[in-house]
Amino acid sequence: MRDMWSAIPVRGRVMLLALIALLLAAPLALDRYFISVFVLIFYFAFVGQAWNIMMGFAGQLSLGHALYAGVGGYVAALLWFYFGIGPWVGVFAGVAIAAVFGAMIGWLGFRFGIEGVYFALLTIAFAEFTRIAFDNMAFTGGAGGLFLLYDPHRTHEWWNLRGGPLLFYYLGFALAASAAVLTAWLARSRIGYQWIAVREDQEAALSLGVDVFRAKMIAVLISSSMTAVGGVLLTFYYNNLFPGQAFDIGRSIEIILAPIIGGLGTIFGPIVGAFILTPLGEGLIALTAKFGIDVPGTKAVFYGLTLMVIISLRPDGVWPWLKRLLGLTETKS
Amino acid sequence: MKRKSQSKTARLTRRTFTIGLGAAGFVAGTAPFNIARAQGAALKIAVVLPRSGYLAPAGQSCHRGALVAPKVLSDYGYKVELVHIDCESNADVARTQTERAINDGAQIIVGAFDSASTLAMAQVCEQRKVPLVVNIGAAPQLTEQGYKFLVRNFPTGGMLVDNGLRLIKNLLDVTKLDAKTAVFLHANDTFGTAQRAAMDRLFPNAGLPFRLLESIAYDPKAQDLSVEVTKVRALNPDLLLVVTRAADAIKLVRDMVRQRFEPKGIISPGSPGLYDEEFYQGLGPLSDYAIYNIPWANPKAQMTQALEAAFKSENPKFRFPVECFNVGFTFEALLVAAAAHKRAGSTDGTELMKAIRETNITDHVIIGPAIKFDEKGQNIGIPSAAVQNRDRTPTVTLPAEVATAAPVLPMPGWQKRT
Amino acid sequence: MNLAIVLNVVIQGVLTGLVYGLMALGLSVIFGVVRVVNFAHGEFAVVAMYAAYLLFVTLGLDPLISLFPIAAAFFLVGFLLQASLVNRFVGRSEHEQFILLVGLAIIIVNGLLMIFGPDARPTNLPYSFDSYLLGPLFIDKARVYAAIGALVVSAALFAFFRYTTIGTAIRACADNLTGAAVVGLNVKRLYALTFGLGLACVGAAGALMVTIADASPLLAQAFTLLAFTIVIIGGLGSMTGALVAGILIGVSEALASFFLAPSMKSMFSFALLVAVLVLRPQGLMGRRV
User: Which ipTM did the prediction report?
Assistant: First the structure.
């Protein structure tokens, strides 16, 4: 841990501490709207980091990550709905089942040498398959959805994730921060270097004695587990689940936008990406309203345009460029 | 992060009285809205609808209703100021934008057609004690979850099917149609599934003279329903009961025509699809004689006629008889809000909610008795009408007191249509 | 089981599958040669649908005819798009291409929403409601015409790749890029041509699609997924594979829909996709790398 801290240049340490302090104190000055936006930012930073581990470090392109978020959310929600088991326990079940899915996909993909776009399509197939399956399962509510009760007498049971926006703000912050720490630790660990080796040149890694299969499996398992936790958070924040939305490919795409735009394979990339994209969406809504543009779809067009511009100008993501700008590039590797 | 004070910019589009709120980029802070305004000031309502994304067709239709509402309401002595929000068929956006709307002074929220978005908004409204009036949304659970700041002026899936089945019985009696078998075909989405559950529960005891041969769920994302129609054709029922949306309804009828399958009637126990403009344009005379049992605008009510007049002048390209369902319910939600405000004489959320729960509005747009809510916030009195397509126009045929024509069954064959 | 009905289902599946196959063909060409993950593929198809719809509504052109000018226009668009923008992304990592094309897809879908509104636009052709009666079988006229159109366009494409110099050159690029460059082929120009050809296929497919479906922005994502599924099942680099897989998907979905529950029919295609990925990654007709 100390190693990681000392690896950051002094300037960076100051900025990081300032950022953390700012985020911790922010709710004192922010209104509920901003807090709700931050909950989303933290969520996307968190699941984006989970995806980053699998793609940015281990190089495996997953376009079906909504599967894990959905499964995690559903399992925890079902345990709460049918048995009254709280999410702090339910999350373990959710993680376990999501990890099983991850293991299945990983095993199929890596054992049979499915790579790149093919692997991505495998993940999409699994997510879509699961979506349709949940649409047709009665005990999960099917396409009609699963609804968690709102009980006015239990609004402060934070251990059951019943609470106001502040609860989710700090929980989201904690998750996003832990994910960053975990990623930093993994990056410097043996498995982290193995991942980079696999990502850069799988054959060479194999010839060097790296257990490629194991390394990739670990990446998938960690990634899917983390994403499931995010799914649980979101489920209890919204108190409802619909297969058509939880497992939708649109959600999978949302998850990967932040880490790519922010900077794949970096620790702060997903965080920077989330801090750019979520406010961008909200800001565009406000801007189009300000200019009196009332045609639906306008905001989305600008959003798509921004994505194209950013990826054209900063293909490695915004964070590496920002790092240089802030003078934070480390001199040691 | 400091909150900057900002000025509200008035945005007048060329056809509305709504005042849009601007924000300087991302820093959308708020000027605290003066809650202690005297009675007589306009009620601020945020209307959240899915105007883009997969629910855009319905959302935009509702939006047209919201746009003409202020003028009509003012003619009845209510003053409202509307803010229009596109939730993009996305619950995340619905939630954050509702927070923002309340920050910017919205005193009541109306929305949102999509259950997921509605529930996201319900969380916010409950915590901030701002009333949420659901204009359209049939998922039964909306009023079963325990939200105290939510009312729904729309039937549940169960009510729709219950009323729908009863009307089918009336239709058979009135037209003296001999129907022995039926097949139920429904989309496997949120709405369709709710209807199916209601059908499974209610049909056995509905006392209908025909047998339900099978219930078939189809994938609403399918490009092609020819196989489903083939399946139905193989069963050869007298009646086809459907729960669809616009795009599917067209495909269904087209394939029925091509496969020369002519049931004696196509009846929806309560769903959209058979009265969308797209349906009429795509099928022409083939769209006629389909029947759908849903709450409908009362053509004989004075308020409906006023709404129709306002709608026509603002939307020359859209037909009121086709849109009156979405427009009517959206208008009624705003009416409920405005009336409660007048009665309460306050803009405090809790007071408003109390007034809303005591709503008792006899003169309104949709058929049926006065608008009232039960202790769960549900309006259980909304009846359905049997509306039949005639000359490509929705025509109320039952109940007789609001009908403008008598129902026709069996449907004339496809080839006989002009 | 009524054999006639099953046969009917299969035939309709084949006909529809051919049009899907044509759309996938465009992707096979683009992905197979230029190696770009065109995640805006379905969106282009929907633009073509609207183009055909407009030409029908304003000029009364049957899509079977307007598909030619539309394909030509799309060729041009593809050529220019590749030369100007996409070329910079060739050879870059898949996720970068993905973001570029997802951004483009978002722009296209919402642009269409802004211009045409959310309601689907039907194209009412004189034969939209006709069917051929062959004994106990009902075969939709519109589907037959669309399938024939798809076959004609595909045949033209095959002929181009097989018998023209440029076609051979493009195939050389796909087989061995370095070799092709060494031999002196102008790879950049060939890429642009290929992208243009791929989009021309999509344009034709979209135009044909309006005979059996109504133009709507919401179809786009489903088309993209469908195209990728078909290409992978059929096999990258195999044009016949794309058509065959299109038919296979059309038929299997129809049968799954008929015998199982219609709401689950897509599950079958995805299961098939997984099976192909695992057991025969080169696809049914692709060449083993």
Answer: 0.89
